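Practice problem 4.
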């Protein structure tokens, strides 16, 4: 009987890591990828569009500090999206309320809902005029496409906006299906949208991987659906449940 010394005979760590990566991603045929802050740099593009909207509507008349409006908008927007992702508020309510509540916080108190509705329309128009992408987005999609994976987008974002985002850099050339929560009436991370995505694309859980930047929607939902997961960590927020974490999109070329 041979007894190996773990100190002398254990393969180096990179060997285990390479094997583990290969094992975890073996058999993958279908890739789903989130859009906002995974491919399309929502945060940067939104910041620009929001400030433009603020000035177009001359909001400085009652709010002298744009940064204060910005912080209040982000707070209300986050809360409304959390409710929307749980299916507790409608899209139309989310879109107007985030502006209306921020306006009220800044002292605007006459017909804020009407102004909020107009500001939301302008904001969405301005939003898709900006095209900053997450570094490596186009190169990764091209690589996955050339490797023979079916690449699909899976997003809670709004119809009519998400398709324009994917036009940036020609990303839509590499996307076979764009699955939106509005198409099935169910948002990530609820299981129904992942099952809907499977129906549309014909994929099976064991051969499917989800790539996304949000642990609570992209990763949690995909894990519950039995898919494998790659978490894109651009903010320093860890996600221990994902099969893999990367800090740059092009690291995914080592996994797939
Ligand atoms: Mg995202």
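Answer key:
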């Amino acid at each position: 009987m041979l007894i190996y010394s773990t100190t002398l005979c254990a393969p180096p760590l990179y060997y285990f890591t390479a094997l583990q990566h290969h094992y975890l991603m073996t058999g993958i045929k279908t890739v789903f990828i989130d859009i906002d802050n995974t491919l399309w740099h929502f945060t940067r593009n939104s910041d620009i569009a929001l400030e433009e909207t603020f000035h177009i509507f001359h909001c400085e008349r009652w709010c002298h500090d744009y940064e204060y409006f910005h912080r209040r908008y982000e707070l209300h927007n986050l809360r409304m999206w959390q409710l929307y992702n749980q299916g507790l508020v409608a899209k139309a309510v989310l879109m107007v309320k985030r502006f209306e509540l921020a306006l009220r916080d800044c002292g605007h108190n006459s017909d804020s809902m009407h102004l909020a509705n107009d500001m939301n329309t302008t904001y969405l128009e301005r939003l898709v005029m900006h095209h900053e992408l997450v570094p490596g987005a186009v190169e990764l999609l091209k690589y996955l496409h050339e490797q023979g994976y079916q690449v699909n987008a899976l997003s809670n974002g709004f119809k009519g906006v998400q398709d324009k985002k994917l036009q940036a850099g020609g990303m839509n050339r590499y996307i076979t299906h764009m699955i939106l929560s509005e198409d099935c009436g169910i948002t990530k991370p609820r299981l129904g949208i992942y099952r809907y995505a499977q129906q549309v694309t014909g994929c099976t859980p064991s051969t499917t991987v989800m790539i996304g930047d949000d642990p609570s929607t992209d990763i949690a939902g995909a894990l519950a659906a039995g898919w494998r997961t790659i978490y894109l960590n651009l903010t320093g927020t860890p996600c221990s449940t994902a099969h893999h974490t990367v800090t740059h999109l092009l690291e995914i070329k080592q996994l797939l």
